[in-house]
Specification:
By secondary structure, the chain is of the alpha+beta class. Helix content is about 60%, strand content about 15%. β4 and β5 form a beta hairpin.
C-alpha cells in the first residue's frame, strides 16, 4: 500500500502480533450470521482460550504475509472471522465444528498452525483429537505403566528360569 493511513498500519501490526502470539489461527466464514449467534461463538471460544475477531481481509492478508503465512491469502476472501488460539487448538476446533453443526452459516475455511497452513479438512481432524488434558493423562498412564510392565516381565523371566532349574 502506498502511504497507508496510520490506523491501517496499526491494525496490520495488531493482526500480525496476534498471528505471532497464537499457537494457531482458524479462519471461518460467517456470512448471514446474526450478531447474537456470533457473540455466542465468541463466548464459547473465549472459554477455550481463543479470541474470534473480524478484520478487513486486505489488512489480514498484509499481516499474514508479514508473519510468513502469506499462503492464507486464498482463505481470506469473503466475510472472514479469525479464531486466534492460545493453548488447546483441538478444543477451539471442536467449538467451531459444533457451532457449525448448529449454525450452518458458519463455515470453517482452514487456518494456520505454526508454519503449516491448514485446510478445512485439517481443522476437522484437529477437532477429532482428544483434549490436551486427556492426551496428557494418557501419556502419564503410559509412563506409569512402563516400570510396572517391566517388573512383571522381569518377574515372569525369573519364575521361568527357576522352573527350568528345578
Amino acid at each position: 500500500m502506498e502511504n497507508p493511513r496510520p490506523e491501517k498500519v496499526s491494525v496490520v501490526a495488531e493482526i500480525a502480533a496476534k498471528f505471532r502470539e497464537a499457537d494457531a489461527a482458524i479462519l471461518t466464514e460467517y456470512r448471514g450470521m446474526t450478531v447474537g449467534a456470533m457473540a455466542d461463538i465468541r463466548r464459547q471460544l473465549r472459554a477455550s482460550g481463543s479470541e474470534w475477531k473480524v478484520y478487513k481481509n486486505t489488512l489480514a492478508r498484509l499481516a499474514a504475509q508479514e508473519t510468513g503465512a502469506g499462503e492464507l491469502a486464498s482463505q481470506l476472501a469473503g466475510p472472514t472471522a479469525i479464531a486466534f488460539v492460545k493453548g488447546d487448538v483441538a478444543a477451539a476446533a471442536k467449538v467451531l465444528r459444533e457451532a457449525s453443526k448448529t449454525n450452518p452459516l458458519l463455515i470453517v475455511k482452514g487456518g494456520v498452525m505454526g508454519d503449516k497452513v491448514l485446510s478445512a479438512k485439517d481443522v476437522e481432524v484437529l477437532a477429532d483429537l482428544p483434549s490436551r488434558e486427556t492426551l496428557l493423562a494418557m501419556f502419564a498412564g503410559l509412563l506409569l505403566a512402563l516400570p510396572r510392565n517391566f517388573a512383571y516381565g522381569l518377574k515372569a523371566l525369573i519364575d521361568q528360569k527357576e522352573a527350568e532349574a528345578v
